[in-house]
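Re: weekly structure request thread

Next one in the queue (79 aa):
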Amino acid sequence: MKAVTQSGYGPPERVLSVQDVPKPAPKDHEVLVRVRAASLHPDVWHVILGFPFALRLMGNGVRRPKPIPGTDLAGVGGA
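Done, posted below.
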């Protein structure tokens, strides 16, 4: 499947790219969603840049970010 991935912290044009990634397997009490739309809002923008530094301490990764940024999406469950 395709996903926008983040390779590090910095300007989006340098750290974001579209890549083929393995399709995740949902665990018990989870659902796989086929994403039809996603948004990029200020808190995700700050996470991509890595500033303020406190955001890194809040679970996104101090040295390297999580590989797929973002939290808001719309889609179809059971994909």
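The helical segments are 12-15, 42-49, 54-60. The two ends are 12 Å apart (CA to CA).
Next request, please.
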